[in-house]
Fold:
Amino acid sequence: MARITASVYTSHVPAIGAALDLGKTGEPYWQPVFKGYEASKQWMKDNKPDVIFLVFNDHATAFSLEMIPTFAIGTAAEFQPADEGWGPRPVPKVVGHPELASHIAQSVIQDDFDLTIVNKMDVDHGLTVPLSLMCGQPQEWPCPVIPFAVNVVQYPVPSGRRCLNLGKAIRKAIESYDEDLNVHIWGTGGMSHQLQGPRAGLINKAP
Structure:
């Protein structure tokens, strides 16, 4: 049976991806950031998974404001880096795992969570920057990735309780998959990426 062996949580700030792509990692401004990931990159080499289930948020790239799924799972065989207005990042395509993704969708939907099943989707910096931070700049990513997009862009967003219960359903789904796979769960993003309205760009002050 498949098993979850680790979880990873990291930033996906687009400027980090640009610094990598433009060869600026050695500049004084960026050195502390990338030095901080050296141990994580070595850990990744030493603990390579068979599949990464990556929870992220789209930035109105795959999903415009005309269609906003609350939860969406990528079931395609591959996902291309998205053009976010200045060309796609020079990173490898993301290879998917359609069999496990479809199994998760089947299981979670039968547990009464409504997922949007996405058979074609470009992935933006929300997904590719974490891969770059943990895996460096390889010719291909070290394993297949299942993208799982959660809407935090436009209100209403799912509650923390709903996300917690969905996480339990995803764990159940992965552990019921009838293949000996080592699966990592990765998470990245913020609680709000609202693009418009009075909360756009708002930083909540400490009480």
Observations:
- The domain at 3-187 is CATH 3.40.830.10 (Protocatechuate 4,5-dioxygenase; Chain B).
